[in-house]
């Protein structure tokens, strides 16, 4: 039997959103565990599993669960830089049913603008063995930022 072909694909993207909320409010959505869990760690179609939150440089967050009864998804992030109300930098890994599918470096930038906050998400990913790709990751991130927008609008 032949071993599966191992591949590496690189992809990056930047998403910019203007939220009608102060920088302090958008920041708190990331820095406060209860707030983050409300918009990031839950969804009607998401069966939550393990959850950890440790918002500090060197801290690790984990969000695990099944989406629409599908494969077990695991997100594990380590904070590498935090400048209050300005930026957060993380590295994170994703797994599906125990298979490591990607490693990414992400920066979140918070900038005051006339309507509230300009939020910039910039991601550079390494996608492994054809199990994930940049287009899918971008699409998933758009959904996460849509949930953040809905949370901030309530």
Give the topology, please.
Layout: E1 8-19, H1 23-31, H2 33-39, E2 46-52, E3 60-67, E4 72-83, E5 87-96, E6 99-113, E7 116-128, H3 134-153
Antiparallel strand pairs: 1-7, 2-3, 3-4, 4-5, 5-6, 6-7
Helix pairs in contact: 1-2
Pick out its properties:
154 residues, Alpha-D-Glucose-1,6-Bisphosphate, Chain A, domain 4, 7-stranded antiparallel β-sheet, alpha+beta
Could you give a short description of this structure?
With 154 residues, the protein is of the alpha+beta class. The chain has three helices and seven strands, in the order E-H-H-E-E-E-E-E-E-H.
Structure description:
The chain has helices at 23-31, 33-39, 134-153, and strands at 8-19, 46-52, 60-67, 72-83, 87-96, 99-113, 116-128. The chain has three helices and seven strands. Strand 5 and strand 6 form a beta hairpin. The mean pLDDT is 93. It has a seven-stranded antiparallel β-sheet, with helices on one face. The radius of gyration is 16 Å and the shape is globular.
Helix and strand run: EHHEEEEEEH
What is the CATH level 1 assignment? Alpha Beta
CATH fold group: Alpha-D-Glucose-1,6-Bisphosphate, Chain A, domain 4
Give the strand tally. Answer: 7
Provide the β-strand percentage band: over 45%
Can you give the helix content as a percent range?
Answer: 10-25%
